Amino acid sequence: MKRPGDFWPMSFAITSLSLKRSLLAASCALALAGCESVTTSGPKLDPQAVASAEVNVASLSEVVARNPNDAEAYNTRGSALARAGQYKEAIVDFDTAIRLDPNMSKAYANRALALANMGQPQPALADYERAINTNPNYVPAYVGRGNLYRQARQYDFALNDYNRAVEIDRHNAEAYHNRGLVHQAQGQHAAAVQDFNRAITADANATPPRIARGISYIALNDPKSALDDFNTALASAPNSVEGWMGRGQAYEAMNDTERAKASYARAVQVAPKNDAARQAFNRTGGKMGQHYSLTN
Hints:
The protein has helices at residues 17-31, 47-66, 71-83, 87-100, 105-117, 121-134, 139-151, 155-168, 173-185, 189-202, 208-219, 223-236, 241-253, 257-270, 275-283.
């Protein structure tokens, strides 16, 4: 499932050519540091990625120093700081970007995302609304606000935002995925699968929609299709606890206890403190310290 901090809008409308070159040089390197492994306990930053992000923050600070009145420079550095988990510092930059350009919708949306990551949903909601007011067609703001509503179980409001997002952008994988999560939460698994299909069509490399679709396939009594999804997801995200847990559930539904046990063992190995993984491992008769084959 997607969390508030999963995506940072990074498409910048830069008017100064020299500033554009500086930001692109720093942002391209920053993009390489934006990956994280997926666990049920929340996103964990790779130390090497953080170090790389810190280097790019320094580079972007040089850009800010050369362009102290350019909102884009502050917005870009704020995004880099947020990727490094420095949300308070990021918000300071987003504040400055908004002061310099009160109509910068992406700065409002970025600040909202930082606030959401800090556990402040109400101020985040207000910023998403500001982003929409400045640009009624700004899709990331609808998706972000929809995510806040979904997490608060205000599903009707969430669906309205996701519907608006895909109305504006019919190829937005994140909107389809999150709309599918709403259907899934409501027990409407057939509708959820349709939206996860759309998300995967829009972004064939996206892992979360495949895991989510696998969960709905299990609910629809189709464990073989679920297993295909979990295996595909794990091929690109081998440390996904959700993927290993789903794989175990699929094998359990197929009465293959040994492979289920091996999958849960891998989930425990990836996230030793995950209670759900330990409970599933113990329930299927798993024993700590014993070797389990994932292929036999």
